[in-house]
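Chapter review: from sequence to fold.
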Amino acid sequence: MNFTRFLISSVVSNPTNNRLLPVLFPPLSPLQSAWGTCPARCAAKKARAASRNRGGKAPGQKLGIKVREGQLVRANQILVRQKFSFRWMPGQYVIAGYKRTLNAQVDGHVHISYERWSPKPTDDWSTNVAPTLTDHTMQRRFVNIIPAPQVGRFRLVDQI
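The token string follows.
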């Protein structure tokens, strides 16, 4: 008997040696379908790994304020790193760089100040919602630099 054309449909255990033996059925006629004897539906596509949710492997961006009130900073030192909008505004002797990063223009001490923000009455939000918010909600934070006094870095007019 030729066993190459037989279908394996289920497995029966052999009690003598605890092995699983396939149960073979006789070959099908040309009019019969192999799908009629298949106990489960076969996959139409090859299985692949998920193609979504690939993110989350990048390191953190380390955003936020990098200096404290009263700290001595050098010129061009990073004071604040921020991403989307100005949570910290540039004040005196502070410039905004790439991605709204605030840098010191001169050597000096850091001073943080707060100011109430009153938006221009150009839309419904600024005329209806903004007046009802508290002062703490409507304040802006400014990072300022108080320049350090220059010692030994200047010349008199007569010396030039």
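Two observations follow directly from the output. The two ends are 114 Å apart (CA to CA). The longest helix spans residues 124-129.
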